[in-house]
């Protein structure tokens, strides 16, 4: 390899300081890279010529030619730094000043990232798109020192063989999916397989084969996972004898979803080794070295706070201050097995059932014997299994090196024993996807499996028990304590309560393992009862349990202990080991290996295993701190007090009293109307809140005056109404603030001291601008008005060109509402990308007094169809048959999925904003009203970060809990609203129907109070989906696990709804309620067509919809 020399290298290439993660956090399209475990990866931003905020992104890698302690060379793809110039008819270099390289990168938009400019560059002669020689070398302005976070990747020999069959990876910040605007913030990686030359040629379309050089371009891919747009220039690295060697540079990939299974194409680095060396020799040299302290480690907000805290206390901790001060190791005489620390009590019940399977999140470290076992696949480290286990001890002492688990956890899918070196055990952890867990990893030294272990063809297992000897002995601390073992042949009575815990899935349909340790309380059931269900089990070998609310274990919990105690205060003993279940997770009886029957085997085999190599560093066995605990202190359950972890924020200053009316001024520009809705200035002594008493309509009339402006003074009469925050400095100098009307939809009525004269015709409404028979743009003939509002109206029109009936939505030009502009922008994007279930735009225009959009004319809204059934149900709950609910649910979710894929949030999902098609297109479902949409994806493809203060958007009864609490909305919030709509259609009402806000509360206060009420109800999943099919509870559990940046689990939800259809025996031909053969066709015929106005059937954009 080029970068290695004959002498020992103090900074070897291709060896990261932080171990890469291969398994537990797999997600669609790859998984997040363990921070700084690919220390050669760099992020390259090439800004547009006239912008320092927009441009294209690529990846690259730090390389070096000779040994040393710093490098200034970056290897990337040529197409990242060149572009075709039509003036010269060839590829030309982009301005070097517009290229910025980020090293030690993890989150690409991290404010403290380490950036460096480019001094010189060379490309390999790249002349044609998708062609060969797609390689470039950048010389950085400063040499990058080798640290834990920045190290070069190895270069291969120039005669290296194609690494077919080797363990290879690609990392990058590229888009998650083709034809999507979503680029992850964090660095991600996927495992790829390098293809042979013959397979590569076969995968390329014949028309393109002539453009490729298969000697210098290679193929690699793994199904749907591979490099995407934005990954260009990144390194394809293969792990050869523990070193990462770069064999390829991401060049280009498949251009459509259908072709994703073909492969991505890479520049083959070995063929360019000599060129790289020569390019290094001709480029301008770099003489300056970046100081090591300028290379920043990526830290989360929690970790930065914890680091500052540790520095202030001079406390010993891990590197980066990621965890709390280590607890003392227990003395042997203090040790009691099966006894958690006093300040980590076990939570024996919970209101919600959203964890393990019918369980809840365990109090951290309350089950200190529970360990997580990761066992990688023989061929693919990214494919393996997760299991649980328990620390046990066979002799007195204050440390242990023994873990008990299930035998099947140490076998692969083909029932072959996995190699010991691939087995890793994580001790004293709570959250498995954190640096805290990585720091507590212990390798297995040896393990032993019961010689008569057998996996039955029917899914059962016999003698399912194994022991793992750890490489390092684990000292006993508050977070690491072994569980006690039962005596030989010790039995438990039926009905005895026990605990099972693990990081596995929450249900049979759940797509992912849990982040935090979850637990459930289960009861021992009589063996004879269990035998009826599973006839092949043998008494004495197996224990059976069953929990309430389908509580029990699920996939990923195998090997975890079933712990029970004789009475309160007694130590906990591991009576069972999670083995198998005959059906879906916790639907029937769960089976465990009966430990008391194998106690003699445990004692014998445990003694024969080799001794540990050393003791695990006790300073790593520290308490896991959640982000809230870092910020607000650690709440101790037993002490009922807060242990502060740092200086607390001082209280906010109190608002000064208002003793006199406050004068404000309104300014506007007649020649260039502003895009905001008024500019206010206030003479105030310091910061305070002013509440304006203007009606919404009056406020807008002030804004839309267009003639010869002079500042007009008005007086705020009372200190009530909607809040505006106005700032001034300490001397009372004025500061202005823009107040946008669409942020203030609920201003109460009031008075204005001085009125502003309206221009001629300024008071006309949109409904008065068109009349029956009028022709717009010589094409659309107005037939009738469908609906109207203060500044807009919708008309049914006939297209003279096609004869088709369409809808024309207009908006007065004088208003700055601009909702129509938003709707046109969103619909055009959706139409261009062939989104499902949205109206087609057939015309857009602007006249002297109004602007308009012509689109598909739809039928009745889902809400109108439901309301038309009022006389059909004696309980007054208007609902569809279940088949119609499933159909509408699937189509309406598809509409949201397409909207999200194009970078938009809807923010007002409800039955009023969905409509069925007009006869005979009854099965067509349309998503409507995009006036409240927000783009959640930036121009560079990254996701917007949540704002701290957000005004309420949407409809109170269909809004998500986070939305009601004033938090920024994300894709998950749209899907929550969709789920509320699905429940409404299924049972005829929302779970919170009948709730009403206290009188006199502001809308903001109403939303907060309702959010707390709704949140409590949703946490009790059983009550929340009462009266709904069981699959709805699974959907609720999926949504509860969603974070702000997560893509909703659309496919899992579709799968659950399809399973429900199959279970009920429905097929695609089953008629919907409103179809000709539908159960309620006659009644739904009375439902009026949707008026296409915001809010649906004349509901407007009210914040409180008691439907």
Structure description:
The protein has 1107 residues and is of the alpha+beta class. It folds into five domains: 261 residues, Trypsin-like serine proteases (Thrombin, subunit H), CATH 2.40.10; 280 residues, Trypsin-like serine proteases (Thrombin, subunit H); 81 residues, no CATH class; 91 residues, Phosphorylase Kinase, domain 1 (2-Layer Sandwich); 223 residues, Transferase(Phosphotransferase) domain 1 (Transferase(Phosphotransferase), domain 1, Orthogonal Bundle). The protein has 19 helices and 50 strands. Strands 11-12-13-16-15-14 form a six-stranded antiparallel beta barrel. A six-stranded antiparallel β-barrel has the order 3-4-5-10-9-8. A hairpin with a 2-residue loop joins strand 1 and strand 2. Helix 12 runs antiparallel to helix 14 and helix 12 packs antiparallel against helix 18. The termini are far apart.
